[in-house]
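[agent] plan:
  1. take the single chain provided in the ticket
  2. run structure prediction with default settings
  3. attach C-alpha cells to the ticket
  4. add a short note for the reviewer (M.T.)
[agent] executing step 1
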Amino acid sequence: MSVDQVATRFDVSKDTIWRWKREGDFPPPVKLGGNTSRWRLSHIEEWESQRPCCLITHLDVDVGAMMRR
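[agent] step 2 finished; step 3 output follows
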C-alpha cells in the first residue's frame, strides 16, 4: 500500500502516517528502492487488530432523526 492509500484508510494526512512511523508505533514500510516505500496490507491489518480501541472516522447517522426522538 502506498502512503496515500494508508492515509486514506485512516482518514489522516500523509504527514501523520510518517509521524506515526517515526514515533515507532506504526509498521515500518518496505523499501522498494530509491524513495519508494510501500506497506504490506497484512502488517497494517495486524497493527489495527492490536489497537486498544477502534478508529471511527465516519458515522452513517441521520442526526435529524435522532433529534426528533
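[agent] step 4 note for reviewer: Residues 3-67 form one domain.
[agent] ticket updated
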